[in-house]
Amino acid sequence: MLRFLHTADIHLDSPLKGLETQEDAPVEEIRGATRRAFDNCIDLAIDEAVDFLLIVGDLYDVDWKDYNTGLFFASRMGRLNRAGIKVFIISGNHDAANQITRTMPLPENVHLFSPQTPHSIRCETIGVIIHGQSYSSREVTENLALRYPPYEAGYFNIGLLHTSLTGREGHENYAPCTLDDLLAKGYDYWALGHVHKREILSEDPWIVFPGNLQGRHIRESGAKGATMVTIEDGRISEVKAHELDVLRWTTCRVDLSPCTTTGNVLDSVQQAFERELAKADDRQLALRLVLTGRCPVHSRLLERTAQWTEEFRGLGAGLGNIWLEKVLYQTSRTIDPEEIADQDTALSGLIQAIRDLSLDSDRLTKLVPELAILRSKMPPEIHDDEEPVLAPSSEKIADLRTEVQDLLIARLLQHGKNR
Amino acid sequence: MRLKRLQLKAVGPFTDRTLNFNSNVPGLHIIYGPNEAGKSSSLRALKALLYGFDHQTPDNFLHNYEQLLVGGCLENSDGEELVFWRRKKRLGDLLDEAGTPLPASALTPFLHGLEPEIFASLFGIDHDALVHGGEEILAQKGEVGQALFAAGSGISSLRQVIDQLEQEAAELFKASGQKPEINRAITSFKELKREFKAAILSCKDWQDNYDTLNRAKKDRTRLEEERDSKNRELRRLERLVQAIPELAALSSYRQELRALGEVVVLPKDFAENHRRTAQTIREAELQLEKDSERCKKLEVQRQALIFNQKLLDCAAGVDALHQRLGEYKKGLKDRPEREGMRISLRKEAALLLQQVRPDLTLDALESLGPVLARKKSIQRLGAGHEAISQQLLQAEKQFRAAEQDYQGTMQSLAAMPARQNSSSLLAAVKIAQKEGDIDALLDRKRHETTEGKKACQAELKRIGRWTGDLQQLMELSLPLPETILQFENQDGILAETQRELDKEQKNLVQELSKAQIEIKKITYAGEIPSEKSLNETRKKREQGWQLLRRQWLKQEDITGDLLNYAPDRPLAETYESYVEQADGLADRLRHEADRVASAASLRAQVEIVQTRLEDNDLRRTVLLQKRQKLDAAWNKLWQPVDIAPLSPKEMTGWLAAMDRLRYRTGDLIKKEQEIKNDVQRRQNLRLAVIEELELLNVPEIPQAEALGPILVLAETILERSARQQAAEEKLTEKRETAKNHLKQAKEDLVHAQEAMGRWQDQWRKMISGLGLTNDITVYEAIDLIDVLQNCFDRAEKAADLRKRIDGIDRDALNLEKDVKALLEQVAPDKVNLPLDQAILLLHTLLSQSQKEYNLYDSLSKQLETLQTEVAGTEKTLQSARTQMNDLLRIAKCNKQEELAAVMEKFDDYRRLKEKISDTKTTLAKIGAGTEIEEIIRQAEAIEADQLPGRIEILQRDITERIHPEINGISQAIGELNNKLATMDGSAGAAKIAEEMQEELARMRRLARRYALVKLASKILQLEIERYRETHQDPVLRIGSRYFREMTLGSFGGLRTDVDDKGAPVLIGLRPGDIRVPVEGMSSGTRDQLFLALRLATLEYRLESHEPMPFIVDDVLINFDDQRARATLQALAKLSVRNQVILFTHHRQLIAEVENIDTRDAVVVHNL
Predict the structure, then answer these.
(1) Are both A284 and A161 inside the same structural domain?
(2) Which residue of A has its CA nearest to B993?
(3) What pLDDT was estimated at residue A418?
(4) Last residue within a domain, chosen from A216, A243, A270
């Protein structure tokens, strides 16, 4: 029997995005997640005494320059070396341009495939041949698979390829190729990398994206880990996903329409949290809470979103394992504001005005000139996110409009009631 | 919308209270109630009616949550009414009149989707809101936009809303601040970025360090090798310096050895052996001489000693005699005293015996021994006698008492009267009781039935259309509701069709007349040429031409045809006129083409409309037929009921009412049957009880129909019987107890008597043998035994003493015999000495002999030892002499005198050998492993004087050059190693990167919030301004009027002005055009200003919208009486178009109502 572990897209020391920390929060639980997940992977390889480990690209983030990360990686390779486990690596788009990949001295159990041309490594003792090619530059747009060596009889053939195949949402289209290109090679197992979501493209032969080891933001939600492959008598007998992530990203939608009191809201949210925790085997969760539904408590939520967010954060902290990434208040009034808009009152005029307001990024700046100042003061990194903060897209403008409307109605009516 | 009725069915302090707001005009409804009357509850009930009960309400103190119920009737401007109920429930809280749940949307046509908060702010005002509105106007210095918006929205604290938004924004971000959250986050992010840059380890740094370290290590290895080789040379030279003197000494020793010539080699310990042997010989000879002398002396001393051997042999016997002498003397002394004591004891015994048994002698006393041995048992038995006789006495007493008790009980029982059996009566009563209060139940049911019947009959009458009694009603065959619904639908369809046809006809007629008018209009402008008339004229012209051709070219006779064509004119003329006509028509058709076309179109239209009108008529006829058929069927449907039916819709209601009534009647009939059954059941129960009573011969049984009296009588009898039975049972129980007691007492008595008998038997057995008479008491017997015991004890002691005196005499005799025998053996001459002297003499003689014997023995032992020593010394001397001869042979000497020279020469030889060996050892040490020959070779090869110079040069090179260099490099290596150790793959930079992301996330959230809040504030301000622009003129115009009225003309009205900054502000206008800013008004006046604007907005709204009730909660409390009246009047005026509901607890206000102009519009409701 023969076993190997297939992993990719480790992005060591790539920071988690979108998580705020609060005072006295146990930050150590979220720090260093990529390292701890990688350690889990190494532990698994050693505990299960696998024959070799495959790393299919993207060890480091492209613009990550801290050599300590490389040293950390080298030390873990050293552990595998002492345990007699070989490692086969191809570099991906992120690694190709990274200095660390090129200069890091690695122990003799590690083989890094050359970027010059595809080639093969034979492991005679276990009857395995591994084909692969590293990325020579950040953007590889040619079909690398075409030039991979032909199937070699008498061996178990494994191909390592960092590719987006025919294109995958949210991933640059590098080393494009079709499934047929891969099938045509006749290999026994294609170990792919680059796509962060686990995906099994074919089971005969097996073509697998193991997904990344650790999600780093809300768009990388769900379980993450590596794939363990068992070979018996030259044939694959088992392909099993191992969850190795230490922090799991998830979006939790809670329908508040049955809630009539704020107490109900907290109960509903708590129950939803508990469900999510159970789903994640009580792992640390980075959770985006989305509140929906037409509900009588809508105004009370909108009046004080900051306090509510704190309440939910407290609930999460109380359960021990939940970090709140963000709370989206997408509830609505039990009565459509459009109906109010038909009345000729000061309020309906306001709603009408908000509805008629033509908003785009420029108009926003004209209305609120302070935003331009704020924009200029904020560090450039603020624009790295996919949701630009102060230059919103048209959908975000619609959201903003609804939020302004809800906020104003809530505030005005709250004061009307209190007085 | 207006509220027509508010029913406080069960809420707050109210139960079934109705407030009717049923005035002609919408009206001003003043709900008056002093404190605690439930004003707040009724206001809350009104809100609950419209929007449902709050989750928690204080109005549940009388009725609990499940019971809370309010009802009401709403009417909208179309005259539609909605009567409904509201209960406190999360779902289905809205009910219609009949209690069926209504959908929540049922209220939409009345409330127009207004949310409760919005309704409250738009159509409600209370005192706080009024005062706050006034204050806000002041705070904004009369800023028009805000005042109007606030009054228009009913939201009095706009400024606070804007302020709060702006404040929140300021707490989030300021262009030039440090404290706001975003500013802080930005600073913190920059700081982190700096830290991050510092924490990063670049590839180059690491690589450089790594390379430098490797180079340094190589350098160090090279230097260390050099140092080692120089050290080796240095040590070689130093060795030579030490070795050269040693080499010289070695050569001189070797020469001396050669000079000694031949040497006898002696063993290693030869000298020592020689010395020891010579000494041994000397010492042994001296010892032998001394020991011989001492032997002789000891022998002389021993022979001088003499001693008595026989006496010594009997030494143990003498000692024993000496001891026995002491005992002998003591015996002689004690004997007389013991003899005296023995005699006195015997006398006492004899005396005691004489007292109790004079018949016995002292020597016969022994026979009483066995009896006296039982003394303890006799005493124990005697002590038990008292208890047993006491027990017997007690048992006799108890037996007598028990017997008496039993006899008494038996007599009481015999005196009890006989008792009757009442169990079947009890059973009958219990069955009757099980039915409960059947009399009352029957009465209530009968009453309910009668009332129900009356109500049903009344209802039947009210429903009308059908006459007959309730029984007939039940049997009446009514059509099915579904059938009626079918008719209703058909009726509806027909009516709809009818309406459509009517409408169509009306439209068509209008269209027709419109077209005809148009045609007329065109016709008035002259006849309209038509294609038709042109064609006809052309046809005539063509006819004329044909005729002309026939006449002219073919010369035919055309008279006949001519008559038809032109009877009165010549043909040519006629033809000519037709040619002209045709040309004229053709020209006109061309010139007046438009007119012609429109005329043609209109005519076509008229034709179409007419056709459609005919079609419409036709359809109406068909419809009429259908209607008649439907009516006939409808009437036929109701024939069996024998009534003239109304429309299907009305009949649906009628049928439902009839159904409900039939259902109720059915219930009543069922109930009547139940009553009949109940009466029968009651009679049966009553008869059963009476039968039982008669069996018991009870007199005066009541004969009424009711069951109650009979039951009461029966229960009394049962109770009496039960009491008697209880008394009887108690006595029987007592008798049983007494019987048991008697039996027990008898048993106890027998036991006691038996015990006494057993004791007496035992006693007799016990004291037999003592020779006592039987009449003696227990105590006397015990005393007697004591005396006998004493007597017996004394006699025994006397016998004892006798035995000991005999022993003393025997011992004295034996001693004398033994002494005599010993004396005859050891000193026959002293046989006749008295006993005590003889023993003492023997003792003295023995000690003397023993002393002399001891001395002799000691001398013998010394002599023996000395002789053994002499033999040993002689042996030693012999051995030493043999050894000395051996030594001489080894040294190759004949005599002892030659030995010294031989030994001296050997000593010299050995000393030289040792020195050579030592020098070689030193050289080996110096050479540190180098062969001596090699050292000698090196020493010969070197100039000794140059050595120190060469050594110093080497030393200096090592210490001054090589060592410092190695140290320097080692230190550098250490530093590099330390530096590399810090480059350990730690996650420091990664952690900072994560912190940076955390800070960014915070910044994004805050920035988004900032944009939101800022935008909201901006939009609100813009909207306030827009509202002002659109509403300022009309609302201020109306507001002016209200303000004038409320201030009783103190102000003429309201105007706008601009303040210093050019912003529009409100001002009041005093008569004489004096402008008063809001700051110049009293707070009351400002309240009125706010109220005036509120009312103005409401009134302005009425122009385009449906009115809604305006709910006013005690706003007039701070107004003076006149202004309160004026305001009341203003409200009353408004209430002619828009319902106003005013809650107040001020009686004064009610009084003011009488004085206002529009009194008719005002209704006062007292709570």
Answers:
(1) no
(2) A15
(3) 40
(4) A243
Which residue in the set A18, A342, A419 is minimally distant from B1001, CB to CB? A18
Touching check for B57 and chain A: CB below 8 Å?
Answer: no
As a whole number of angstroms, the distance between CA A74 and CA A60 comes to 13
Q: Are A290 and A309 in contact (CB under 8 A)?
A: no
Name the closest residue on chain B to residue A261, using Cα atoms: B55
B521: nearest Cα among B599, B587, B448: B599
Range of the domain at A332: 247-418
Q: Give the number of other Cβ atoms within 10 Å of residue A324's Cβ.
A: 23
Answer whether B203's CB lies under 8 Å from A103's CB: yes
Question: Is the same domain home to A231 and A265?
Answer: no
Q: Cα Rg for chain B, rounded, in angstroms?
A: 81
Chain A residues in contact with B117 (beta carbon < 8 A):
299, 413, 416-417
Q: Report the helix count and the strand count for chain A, using DSSP H and E.
A: 13, 15
Distance from C-alpha of B1073 to C-alpha of A137, rounded to nearest angstrom:
86
Are A45 and A78 part of one and the same domain? yes
> For every residue of B705-764, which 3-state class applies, written as one string?
CCCHHHHHHHHHHHHHHHHHHHHHHHHHHHHHHHHHHHHHHHHHHHHHHHHHHHHHHHHH
Residues 998-1037 of B with CB under 8 A from A: 998, 1000-1005, 1007-1016, 1018-1020, 1022-1023, 1026-1027, 1030
Give the residue carrying structure tokens 């430098």: B212
**B771 pLDDT band (50/70/90 cuts)?**
low
Q: How many structural domains comprise chain A? A: 2
CATH number, residue A143? 3.60.21.10
Contacts of B353 (CB under 8 A, 6+ apart): B360, B361, B362, B365, B791
Q: A84 with A165, same domain?
A: yes
Of A3-7, B87-91, B606-610, minimum mean pLDDT range: B87-91
CA–CA separation, A98 vs A73, rounded Å?
Answer: 14
* ipTM value for the complex: 0.90
Of the residues A243, A266, A282, the one at which a domain ends: A243
For the cut 60, the answer to whether the pLDDT of residue B511 exceeds it is yes
Cis peptide before A205 (omega within 30 of 0): yes
Residues A168 and A298 placed together within one structural domain of the fold: no
Residues A114 and A226 reside in one and the same domain: yes
Both A304 and A186 in one domain: the answer is no
Is the CB of residue A372 less than 8 Å away from at least one CB of chain B? no
Same structural domain for residues A232 and A258? no
